[in-house]
Write a structure and sequence with these properties.
alpha/beta, Rossmann fold, 12 strands
Amino acid sequence: MALSAPAFPTITAQTRLLVVAPHPDDETLANGLLIQRVRAAGGAVRVLLLTDGDNNPWPQRWLERRWSIRAAERERWGRRRRAELQEALRRLDVPATALQSLGWPDMGVLDCLLQPAQAALAELTAALADFAPDLVAVPALGDRHPDHGAAHVLVRLALARLGRSPVLLGYLVHGRDEGRPLPGQAGTPAQQAAKRQALGAYASQLALSGGRLRQLAERPERHAHVEAMRSGSTRALPWRPSPLLWPRLRLSAASTCGPVQQWPWRAAPLRRDGRGGWRLDWSAARAGDACFVRLSLALPSPWIFDHWGWREV
């Protein structure tokens, strides 16, 4: 029997939407129509900006006609990008008070997640508790940008800490679609025009990537329900890396039980699953808690996007 299409959450005047944006423009590219739908219904919107997008050197070099970018230049660029976001929100009919900026390092959200002190997790938990959303738009776990995947894990861990279960909608910016997208995200012609106008506020990003960003903004907004895996689900890893890579591989695991753990592949708590794959034999995974794993290659590379990224087990 064919499965029925999942329904989009009902939006009313009581809806409280939190959009988690790792960088300025994520809120517009992937959620500009959703934000307008909530505002049109009389609901509340908050945009939680994790970074100012200041580690963005090539557009800055192009527009400022400079090669060397020091701390002062990065800070100025971050202020510019945050100002662009504020203007984009104005064009989406979102008040300036709806923006909450955490000021984490751009290309550093993963590092924030990996810190043993878990300060970033505590800060995010406090932000969620303060706004108390019933609808959260969060980057998809499979998004290939390391800031996006780490943001998903942090949100899931923070909600587990709070013991709250708002409707989670995953949005994808970098990578291929995962899951079944929800219907009903075309938007009215007026909303689509407002989204294009909001994107136009990002002059710093359109300078070198205008065609790509406009293409991303014009596609239908594809949100998918994020649902926790059931207790007792498989702990099998989705990867079967070549033994030639093992000396350079690292496995990271995050759960609600404590700080993120990291191991070289050969030292990770893994067992063969009898089918040529691997199972995670970690206490947090065995306990049935929310558990996320990331596979990475410990080699310097100019390529910023994840090859394997995060998965839930």
